[in-house]
From TrEMBL:
Gene designation: LOC115344116
Keyword Cell membrane belongs to the record: no
Protein's name according to its UniProt entry: Ig-like domain-containing protein
CC terms in the record's Gene Ontology section: external side of plasma membrane
Gene Ontology terms, MF aspect: signaling receptor activity
Family: Belongs to the CD200R family.
Protein's organism: Aquila chrysaetos chrysaetos
Amino acid sequence: MVTWKISPKVGGPCTLGYRAAQNKTDRTNCSDSMNWKFRPDRDPALEIWQVGIDHEGNYTCEVVATEGNFHKTYHLTVLVPPRLTMYCDDHGNPVCKATAGKPAAQILWVLESNSTPKEEGHDNGTVTVLSTFTAYSTNVTNTTCIVSHPAGNQSMTIACHPPDNNGFILPVSITLCFLSIIIFMAVIYYFKLHSDRLCLKTKPPETAPTHSPQDDTMEVEPYTTYVQKENVIYNSVSDLTVGQNLPQGLSPAT
């Protein structure tokens, strides 16, 4: 009989067993990622698919045979290679970052630097290491970072330049120019508003127009003249009518 007893760091224990007398296998609380590598009656090796940090722990193999009982324990440690990235900080210094490695990676610079790496641990046991390159000489352009790790070494090169002050001066200049225009327009509006008020205060008061009786006479005379002319016409017509109606030999009196 062969039995694998597994005690992972994450999750409960599981068991894989094989009984040669019955040619039967059984499993208790084991995930599908763990199984026999070949036929257990020929090779009792255990195979783990897609190994992850959750599989870390103790693996004990027990064999019961006519020759006696045997057991051997293995401690499984999973290596996680870090993810290497590089960038330039706000001061133009190269930064090398080895993210989520297990165990913690070591960061080295090709050129001499007085950088001190900083480590940040995570709940799953991985560690992120950050190192900022500080050169003794300011003439350095290309900088190479080397990450040393049991799962494999990596390297990356980056070129950083000192920060450009124009990126800060230009927005400030635009803002000051805009504020100057607003202040100038406000001053013009202020003086215009006060000049209008002064004009209103110095304007002479309006006086009512004088009205004389002579104006009334001038307004009435045209109507009077018209009436008189109208009467003359009326009298002429009346005289003509009367003359036509008199007997012969009589004439209208004038």
